Amino acid sequence: MEAKSIYRAFLNVSVAIFGVTFTKKLDAKIRFHRNLNLKNPETLADKLCYMELYIEDELKSKCSDKYAVREYVVDKGLEDILVPLCAPVCSNASEIVYSALPNQFAMKATHGCAMNLICDNKSQIIEDEVIKLANKWLHEDYPRACIEPHYKKIPHRIIFEKFLQDADSIIDYKFHCFHGIPDFVLVCGNRVSGVQKRIYTLDWEPIDAMVGAEKGKYEFERPENLGRMIEISKTLAADFDFVRVDLYDINGKIYFGELTFSPASGVLPNFSEEFIAEKGRLLRIEL
């Protein structure tokens, strides 16, 4: 059994014996070396994890679904930023018609993170391996769903998106929004020499708040479409107390990535203690 599955089983047992609160705090300590205060949440990490465990939100579950969120984006009048689908959505691996797929595509599971396959040349991938991988994804829960419960309500499906060219040069703009208002953006890019990350204000002033292995000094140029991305983030964040809106800007064209409600399990291990304390004051929750 691989390490991820063993750890998942450990979390499930811990939830059954000690409860979800204890297990969430234990997971944060083991994986991220961060202490959570879920009794009197103050920092951004505390509050995101509290919301995850104790405040139910059906819309949050829908918008964490990589397929269902597309309807939400369309309803907001932003269909033009969706990455086009190149095959029907599948609930069973047997529904995948591999011969009908284009030579390049992105296969994703709709119910979690880190379940993505980027194919830039179909002839170099064995069909049976793709079907086997899709089947594996469909038959497993998101590994940490026991402590990120909004994932439990997402149907298990596979989608195929159009392959985005210049993948190595794609930059992710992750707008962190509080009560419908974008506040700061985490930028991820420069993949050729290893992913670099940097935090900026909406005026594109760098914020020195990254810690650990994620801390870097690489500077990203201010995108020409920054203003438009901020407006899109406002539109998509309007219904939520907190959400991270992920967008791409590829050759002047903005694409939607995803909506994320508990980034890094809500623990935010790569942000400094001072930063999450400061941003925690922006998030108002009812205890």
Terminal Cα span = 40 Å
Radius of gyration: 19 Å
**Structural class, from helix and strand content?**
alpha+beta
Mean pLDDT: 91
Identify the overall geometry: globular
Tally of alpha and pi helices: 8
Percent of residues in helical segments?
Answer: 25-40%
Low-confidence sequence ranges: none
Number of strands: 9
Strand content: 15-25%
Main beta sheet, described? 6 strands, antiparallel
Strand order, main sheet: write it out: 7-6-5-4-8-9
Run of helices and strands: HHHHHEEHEEEEEHEEH
List the defining traits of the structure above:
single chain, six-stranded antiparallel β-sheet, three-stranded antiparallel β-sheet, 9 strands, 30% helix, globular
Sum this structure up briefly.
The protein has eight helices and nine strands. The chain has helices at residues 3-18, 20-32, 44-54, 58-64, 69-75, 127-138, 226-237, 273-280; strands spanning 105-109, 116-119, 158-162, 172-178, 181-189, 196-201, 206-207, 242-250, 253-260.
